[in-house]
Amino acid sequence: MARYFNGKEVELLAPAGTYDIFTEVIDANCDAVYFGGPSLNMRMMRKGYNLTYEEVARAVQMAHDRGKRAYITVNNLLNEEDLDEAKRYFAFLNEVQPDAIIAQDMAVFPLIQQLNDAKIPVHSSVMMNVHNLDMIKAVRDMGVSRIVASREMDLKTCEVLQAKSGMEFEYFIHGDMCTVHGANCYYSALLFGNSSSRGRCMKPCRWDYRVKKDGEVYPTEYPLAAKDMYMYEHIPELIQAGITSFKIEGRMRDKDFLLMLVNSYGDGIDRYIADPLGFDRRKDAELLHQNRKRDFSTAYAFGNPGLDFVNRRYEGTGKFYSTGKVFSTPTAEREIKADRVEEVKEALRQVKRDSGVAGISPALTVHVNNVQQARAAMEEGAKVVYLAGDVFQPDQPFGREEIEELAAIKGDAELVLGMPRMMNELQLDRYQHFLEMGKVSSFYGIDGLLVSNLGAFRRLRYLGLPMIADFNLNIYNYMAASLYQKQFGAARMTPSLELPLQDYAKLIQHAPLPVEAIVHGSPIVMYLDLDLYANAEYMEPIGQEDNRYVDNKHLVLMTDKGENPVYRDQDGRNHLALSKELCGMPFLKELYEAGVRHFRIEGKSYTTDQLRELVRTYREALEQLELCGDKFAVMKPVYAGYTLGALQFG
């Protein structure tokens, strides 16, 4: 089965959560079905869902018998133990011959290359978060044949990127959405030990937060809860944008609901292809509205939706509409406990890393937001200073004059230029032009780049500057680490924030390149295009209350279990941080003995004086590792307390 408009293929891609649902959906008005096998996909939490090996084989054959396609989700991040299972699974899939797998982890590419006569096409999952042309070219060179567009990508951008790359694009057209950039939400992992990038999200985005800013409280009602995607009335615009595959979300939905969705969208596409001039966008739209689980939005298809993206009706705290159950309620971030610290130490003592780190002194690295912080970090002995790419307001991004000013006083410290997590073509062009101009002056004193996305690796590697892989690249296993080192030139890596203790220890042991550990600070656990600051401006306050830990100029999300600061950057993106501070002071010695040589403070949210004291404390601790316990005993948190984050688990 195939559909075409002006010679371009249009595929309606339907979900199926079980084999029984698959057998019904494959005969509905769709061209392809995607589903998960027995492991390594992001819908493993619901008992009885996903297909067995035997069912996968039958489903692929059934699809092909009907002239349709079958795509299999292998879209988890993979830990070290998953790699052996993935090898067996890919060998099986290579025999079954699905039309593609949908993948997130970079280890997928070397795993497939290890197969004899590999015939597994790869589609980049939305969790791979491909969002600029260089990223598209990078994954294309590794074997990706289709891009599942980032949820925040509008149709005009899709159209341009598709035309420039020639790649197939897949776009979500209906179903459950998320307010956070794909694979950039770590909150569930740090609160519950359940990684959202491994399909175990506990939905803290759907809690009933209150918003505070400037000493006033606003009636926001679920400010992070996204409406369901709805593009039924915009089929012409999807086709015009060059979208090949129209993807319905819903592997956890029931059969009758899915059949209604698939047949409605299939009929709409058929009607448009048959008569584009007489096409009625609203025909049968009422059926979809009457059967909605949440209110509808076109999300980012036509630009940033603002408040229109936020769901107010039909919302329940942490509630999953596929099951009707409440998965989580507001939960406090865990405090550091002495017995857990001992467990962390013991796990790190088991690491036997042999990678040429003997005799190398520990180096303190500090991520800063402005010149004053950078100066303070250098004066207190930081060996590496990362200049932020996403700069929190009211500070402005680092420019040439400020960089040269810092370079003049850096001494033997290294000055490393960071970049935004998500970079469009304009931002990549700016960085390339700036650095290209700086080649004649030793890059203004810049010693390296802190790289946050695959496109930046591809675009800027030719400059020859050392490139450090940041934590949001979600390096979860040694094979992904090796790929970043060999194919993109990464000189050092920071593991994913989501790694629980045992997986973290194994990655330190097996990683083929130097590992940097985030040991203190308030790293960003949600990265959003949704602007909560702008949304609050449209509301009337209902009360007054000062922020407890950060300046009133910063917006905070508040529950009865704590309050999380949200910082706004120069481009209006929002960065939600933990309410507590990550703290690795008690086990610096064990990290060092495990082979870690770079220890990072995420310092952007501190005042200059607070950061100065932190840098001094950690520098002294790294100079006398035996005294870490004594240092920790007298440290006082700036925010709501200390936590180990994901190291609390596993």
UniProtKB/TrEMBL annotation:
It comes from the Bacteria. InterPro entries: Peptidase_U32 (IPR001539), RNA/ubiquinone_mod_enzymes (IPR051454). PANTHER family: 23S RRNA 5-HYDROXYCYTIDINE C2501 SYNTHASE, PEPTIDASE U32 FAMILY. This is Peptidase U32. The lineage of its organism: Bacteria, Bacillati, Bacillota, Bacilli, Bacillales.
